[in-house]
Amino acid sequence: MVFVKTHDINELTSDLIGSQVVLGGWVEDFRRLGKMSFITLRDVTGISQVIIRGELNSDSDGINRQSVVSIKGVVQETKARDFAFEIKAEKIEVLGKAVHPLPVDPIGRVKSNIDTRLNHRALDMRNQRTSSIFKLRHYVLQSLRNALAEKKFIEITTPKIIGSASEGGASLFSLEYFGKTAYLAQSPQLYKEQMTIGLERVFEISNFYRAENSHTGRHLSEFTSVDIEAAFMDYNDVMDVLESLVMDVCRFTSEDCKAEQEAIGHAIEIPKSPFKRVTYSQCVDELKSADEKLEFGDDLLDSHLRIIGKNHPGFFFLTDWPMKLKPFYIREKEEDPELSRSFDLQYGYLELSSGGTRLHNPDTLKARLKEQGLDPAQFQDHLKTFDWGMPPHSGWGMGLDRLMTTLIGIDNVREVVLYPRDPDRLKP
Q1: Of 41, 264, 276, 366, which is most buried, counting CB atoms within 10 Å of its CB?
Q2: At what angle do helices 128-150 and 400-408 cross, to 10 degrees?
Q3: Does residue 107 lie in a domain region?
């Protein structure tokens, strides 16, 4: 038999009462009551009740929970409280049998730890809380792409196999590449800057890689980054773009994703805007007031950021970092060359994004590379593009996985990534 599904469950309406439909999904529950049986059928869109009577009921012994079935039947009204309609089955076919015992309970009645769930991730997607997280992730990506397109950004795709470090010193994964040493890209930084020459405003949403031996709930070896770069914008302009995108995401998911919020047990809040802008110097003063030993120019540790995060809950920008703490491509403030035209977007203590105004003068860029102990010859392919008329430009990169955790109130990025990669996990 060639299975042809005519409707998703959420397409069943009162207009279809008396009509024949063919549904496909998995058996979430199966109950036999005398001469009748009841199947709770679920697909990705919803749940329905199926009534089995007569001779068909006698043939239903082979049906078990979580098996995939096709059901041909007639839509009818129901007295069941939890369903708007039900299906009177005319034909049932098991398309894929579930072999018990299953390694995790998709209903969630028996709890499994996150490692067990990740080891059986595909089955975990039948858990409505888990699947709702990834539906929300889909809607977040949809919102980001729509908003960036409206702001005249053009989506690009940059190489993930590269010949040298793109940011000069970040931890890189190396690999053999036809007799040469290559690396997995840790960001699209240099490529996206180059693209402003002709495309002006660009963005990329893609996976990148960092070989950091971190064992926390917010670090991954493979992560999804949302990056933009824009010609003729400074760091204040791209901060405004970032704030606008975050607001759009929160508003869209809060208002249009009610079922997903109910399934995960968390209401998405729309933050107050505009986001507060707190300078690095202000942070140093706040930390000294909290009896932290810190001098201007010191990097902010996790313990420092937790104090700052308590002082400024929610989303806020941490701006004007010391130049010595920033990468070679960040531009200084003309009025105070020790400070950079840079920012981080924070959610409390958690860093979500980092960005700033870039250097676009090739001579200054070469001098900065040397100041940071980097060899300009290693960046020759990048530097030559600055001799072709590089416009002033600014940009940022934001961790999508971290944004997702803030959105839905989860403190472990592994919950919002399908198959996370970290120092301890390479499979499945």
Answers
A1: 41
A2: 120
A3: no
